[in-house]
Amino acid sequence: MLNQTTMxxxxxxxxxxALLGMLQACQSNRKAANYNDKQADDNSVNxxxxxxxxxIASVKASGLAIANSKNQKVIQxxxxxxxxxxxxxxDFRKLRSDNSITDSIAITPIHEQQIKDLDLKKAGTxxxxxxxxxxxxxxxxxxxxxxxxxxKKNVEVADFAKKMLPSLQAHLDTAKLINTTLK
Length: 183
Fold this sequence. Notes:
The protein has 183 residues and is mostly helical. It contains six helices and no strands.
């Protein structure tokens, strides 16, 4: 009888341990699935990093416009750019965090060189160069935003791009309009 009770307890203990093991495995799978859901795909990562970097570069270039331009339209536009792109960079930082992207963002060598070159220009030459940089960068960014919107792999990122696209388009349209008034 003692042997049978010990055997029953052993069997019971074995079954309990097996169930606990299976339960733990299920919990681990749930955690992995949730973790993977927040990982951004390559296109989203590229969009987020590129968008944040571009916004930071726009703020720097626009700061130079306020300091170096004598054209009130250019200065007012630069102030708008600083306000909008500072908020946009903050939104990108949050999006980067939400998508578990831990890389820090630095201005690319291309944007750094554009800003250095821009800082050497004065008056009308400066205004034309600044507005041209804005036009080129916003044209590139709009194309990138549209790609992410069409891709739809990451709904959060696509929705963000869709929400921000009209503002970028308005910046581009304004820059083009200002460009036609520059001599």
